[in-house]
Amino acid sequence: MRQLIGVGYRSQLAGWINSRPAEMSCLEITAEHFFDDRTTLHKLAQHYPILVHGLGLSLGTPGALDKEYLQQFAAVVQAADPLWISEHIAFTRAGGVDLGHLNPIACTEDALANLVEHAQQVMAACHKPLLLENITTHLQVPGSIAETDFINRLCEQSGCGMLLDVTNLYVNSRNHGFDALQWLHEIEPHYIRQLHLVGYNKQGDTWYDSHAENIQQELYELTRTVMAYSNVEAIIIERDNNFPTTQQMQQELCNLEQCCIANQLH
């Protein structure tokens, strides 16, 4: 199987993306960036297989999903007609307040039931498969279920797949002192369908997923391990700050293509 390789659409990269570089075979768009811009979205969808990624559905918030927000998300999905959609195993709202960032949830039975219900509601509204992504956490929230078991059960009960953020896994393993490879092998491989990848940075003893660094060699190595373990269908490079030259972006895409080729040869 030949994996799709692409980037997350950002306006700073629009000129390069619109030039349709040969190294890029798909494009991920952030739903919220297109709530009020269907024209650009339609143009992009004419040239690339699209993946739609969400930031603010807040699937981990107890209670009902925000209906208006879900309708806006679903409208973007309808316009883009993506291969699949994705969101985070996290919450972004509490008590009606938008917290402005992704927050970890406690891995409990109640949280699992809540996420399963919300994931199924999103798929019903959008009529597309849903992948759920692991986030970075600088706080470990106590729970009654191991994180990997929680993710497996979440995928099984909801019918979702997993978007594995390789950088988030690596960063969490460093900050919280666990073995990234052991964590990976506790996830059922058939759930992992897409990867996110971006360089990390480190300040003092703390590691960060800043979306602002070039991809380091150890992340490529971990990506190759993930690909050998599971049937990854798409890999997306994320970048939100400190944008590199187009030559550097193309080199990172080529590096991922080499990871794919090496995996196929094995």
Question: What would your notes on this structure say?
Answer:
The chain is α/β, with parallel strands linked by helices and 266 residues long. It has one domain: TIM Barrel (Alpha-Beta Barrel). 40% of the residues lie in helices and 23% in strands. It has 9 helices and 12 strands. The strands form 3 sheets. The chain has an 8-stranded parallel barrel, surrounded by 6 helices. α2 links the parallel β2 and β3. The longest helix has 20 residues, at 246-265. The radius of gyration is 18 Å and the shape is globular. The mean pLDDT is 95.
Give the CATH level 1 class.
Answer: Alpha Beta
Order of helices and strands: EHEHEHEEEHEHEHHEEEHEH
CATH topology: TIM Barrel
* Largest sheet strand order: 1-2-3-4-7-8-9-12
Strand content: 15-25%
End-to-end Cα distance, whole Å, is: 13 Å
Fourth CATH level, the homologous superfamily: Divalent-metal-dependent TIM barrel enzymes
Summed up, the helix count is 9
Specify the biggest β-sheet.
8 strands, parallel, barrel
- Total tally of structural domains: 1
The poorly predicted ranges are none
> What is the mean predicted local confidence, pLDDT?
95
- Specify Rg, calculated over alpha carbons: 18 Å
- What proportion of the residues is helical, as a percent range? 40-55%
Looking at the structure, what is the overall shape?
globular
* Reported CATH architecture: Alpha-Beta Barrel
Structural class estimated from helices and strands: alpha/beta
Number of strands: 12
